[in-house]
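Sorry, explain these tokens?

___
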Amino acid sequence: MPTVLLANPNAEVVSRDERQWILCGTHAHELRAEIDAGADFEAVKALHDSLPGEGTIVVLSSRADEPTIRAHRGITSAYEVFYCLDSSGEPVLTDLFRNALARLEPADRTVPDRAKADHLLYRTTPIDSYVERIHRLGHGETLAWTPGETTPRTELTETLEPEPDLSPTSAHDRLDEVLSAVCAPIADDASLMLSGGVDSTVLEPYLTNPTESVTGAFDTPELEFEREYADRANDLVETDREVVEMSESSYLERLEAAVDALGMPPHQLQTPTFDGIYREFEGNDTLVSGQVADAVFGLGGSLEVARKVWMTRHLGYVPPVVAKLQQHRDVLERLRRHPSDPDGQGLQFAVYTDVPSVVETIGRRQYERRQRERYEYAMDRVPDASGDSYAQHVHVGQWIDFFCEDAVTVWRQAGLARGCEMYTPFAGKAVAELALGLSSPERYVRDGEPKHVPKRLLGEWYPEYDRSKPKGNGNFPADRFLSTGPLASVFDRYDVPEFAPDISGEIVDHSPGLAWNLAGYAVWRDRVLRADDLEPVSHTRTVSVPSSAPRSPGETV
């Protein structure tokens, strides 16, 4: 019997015409009205595709003239659909990876070489999942599955198109309209995750006044400036704020608790911060986050370095330090490659490791295959890159980040595991198409100002906000954490994974990013992957289609 295990506490379950519908995301109200009017799957999907937010639809049917299971993940949706045949051979769909894993016996939880290579490179699996038997519906893909079919049919049925007639000087006005529409469904019933950065602060005007907010903070000295950012932003926008304070000395225990709940490796070091908020915040269980703004409007990491290199390429600029000169030459060489080149600048985005060591371990062919699959996945969903070489690499890198970086999907799942929902307005389809309506690289940088579209909008709401302050990202100092800090003993408690690169000396001394990737995997392997008592999270609802007898709305497991 096909079963959906539903962790999202806010997902709607609608019964109509021998179908069970599950609606996750921004526009459940509009979609429910369409279903109540008798619409079929194609009509509901067409409406969903036309709306500005993000979401995912699943429908179970007992009708003989259509597939038993159909699902569609919106083109920008971070509401996941994992699916598998469980250890008893029954079809299972779920929005939480842990719940799918719980339906497999430990012997059936095989981690393929592809997933190990992905984890070493990206600290996630950008396209599929960590376990061979568990599959993942891609952005913009539609699934059809009838029991008896070994493999469901999936097809890319939705892509992004640039919004026409946009000007960089007025794009912030359009963003204002889109954020108003996307935030409206939850404006009265949500709390803001306020970091003090542009991305979270600009969302405050779209929520009910006075806005309830929460800031999560470890007492890590290197992040003191970010706590000050949050304090200053709150003084400016005047929210009713709760601060969830966490001790750095408890980081490993909090990491273990987060992985236990999530059921997968933690991805970024900030995951325990999000988990702490979900566990300890006493306000609303819908939490609004500024995540994804960097991917559609920002310019980060390697591409910001690339901008400086590209702008000075004709000036005979020579950095004053030998190491910087070599970096300048390396970046320029990567920018002159085709954007699809595995070693090009665009495809170095969202790579979190020492690449040469990983390539030596997994082999050059596997590395090129992993990079090529990311490129094809992202570029199948957006228009081709255009402009000069820098513009093309920026375009590729930012959409790789949007579709393949995965932090937002992991942090949403962490919320679902705790009975909360993270709501991400910048993941709305209309936001992405607005960004595409501006040419690269001007959608990211204008007159030297990165992320100018949301910054200009924030400036209109709050002129006093300091838009020029250095950007924070909440990331912990991995090198100190793993050498002398709260993770110094992690490889005493958890063995280094067997697929780790062969490195002499301490891994953290060689590459803190690689060391963190291995630590996160080791914690997950020992606490979750091998666990013989793994159960779905306690608040999971079960939605199914019996072969006979009336169906009822989802019931808690």
